[in-house]
Amino acid sequence: MTKRVYNFSPGPAVLPVAALEEARRDLLALPGVGVSVLELSHRSKPFTEIIEAAEANLRRLLGIPESHAVLFLQGGAQLQFAMAPMNLLGGKSADYILTGNWGKKAMAEAKTQGRVRAAFDAAGTNYNRTPAAGEPDLDPKAAYVYVTSNETIQGVQFPAEPEVGDVPLVCDASSDILCRPVAIERYGILFACAQKNLGPAGVTVVIIRRDLLGRCPAGLPSMLHYGKLAEAKSLLNTPSCFAVYFVKLVTDWLLAEFGGLDKVHEFNRRKSQLLYDVIDASGGFYPGHAEKGCRSIMNVPFRLPSDELTAKFLKEAEQHDLAFLKGHRSVGGCRASIYNAMPIEGVEALTEFMRDFQEKNG
Ligand SMILES: *Cc1c(COP(=O)(O)O)cnc(C)c1O
């Protein structure tokens, strides 16, 4: 078999080997069905069972109550940047809490649909923190408050849901869904593209409070109308069948391997702490980005003393089978994305390499 390296890519990202193996095993024919999931009608009974099982797994892991619908949509996380305002603004204004690139992009996209304002913007400290309690200047009449629970590029993660009163909370959880338990009943919408922590690219999970479905304007195209999509149980058109199937495999794996998100959280905290320990003990050789109270357990950016050393680090890391560690240009340096499927051995190999590299080059 071709060798697998440790994949620190921010996305599409590492997937659980157990899920990949199951998909490979059943690629030619699903047991008891006799055709591949790639060849199966989305209206067939076997596919109905697959999409219902994926939803049931998500409901179980996240504790999603009946008050919330679960949708499997296309268009990626970024279509949600437009769909949320399109469906929820209703002539009102929305508040955005900006803690990094994705939130800024979401607000720019929402502006194409109506009035939005930044209730908090961490630009002054180069997006290295989440707001303190009470710090956002929230409008109690806003249509919704928008947050990015984990800013993938900056490695800034909300330690808990921000307090937003009675205004619906809309959250982009693309890079941290299922990394820890959340108070799901506090969200109006929580959405996530699949290619970080859920499966392959092509499907976006949207968890939406059912009472908000009544707000969607009748004039919207059906494919952009949450209410119509929910009514059709995500089958208004052909969904991304293979990606939905894979979300089922990944969530099956989480349930079998961890049982629940408390254990997943513990695992992710352990992995990220290994990296932050090296960063903190490096005496400034590997400066991190986020403030300590909001450091991400999914994406860990760090820099090196010079561009030359960064290039050397990335090249030698690759020779050690530690792949795709290059950081985003807006933060620079390196970034280790350590989603649920990253084994602890991968993080241990990286931290050992980092210590060794500093010793030789520091
Ligand atoms: C990756 C990412 C996106 C972009 O997702 P697409 O599916 O490519 O649109 C949006 N938000 C966050 C937080 C991300 O990590």
Rg result: 21 Å
Number of helices: 9
* Average pLDDT rating: 97
What level of helicity do the residues show?
25-40%
CATH architecture of the largest domain: 3-Layer(aba) Sandwich
Low-confidence sequence ranges:
none
Shape: globular
Give me the CATH fold name of the largest domain: Aspartate Aminotransferase, domain 2
Structural category is: alpha/beta
Order of helices and strands: EHHEHEHEEEEEEEHHHEHEEH
Biggest β-sheet: strands ordered side by side in the sheet: 2-10-9-8-5-3-4
CATH class of the largest domain: Alpha Beta
What does this structure look like?
- This protein has 362 residues and is of the alpha/beta class.
- It folds into 2 domains: 17-257, 3-Layer(aba) Sandwich (Aspartate Aminotransferase, domain 2); 260-361, Alpha-Beta Complex (Aspartate Aminotransferase, domain 1), CATH 3.90.1150.10.
- Helices cover 35% and strands 15% of the residues.
- It has 9 helices and 13 strands.
- The protein has a 7-stranded mixed sheet, sandwiched between helices. Strands 1-12 form a two-stranded parallel ribbon. A two-stranded antiparallel sheet has the order 6-7.
- A hairpin with a 4-residue loop joins β6 and β7.
- α1 (17-25) packs across α6, α2 crosses α6 and α7 (261-280) packs parallel to α9 (344-361).
- It is globular, with a radius of gyration of 21 Å.
- The model has no long low-confidence stretch (mean pLDDT 97).
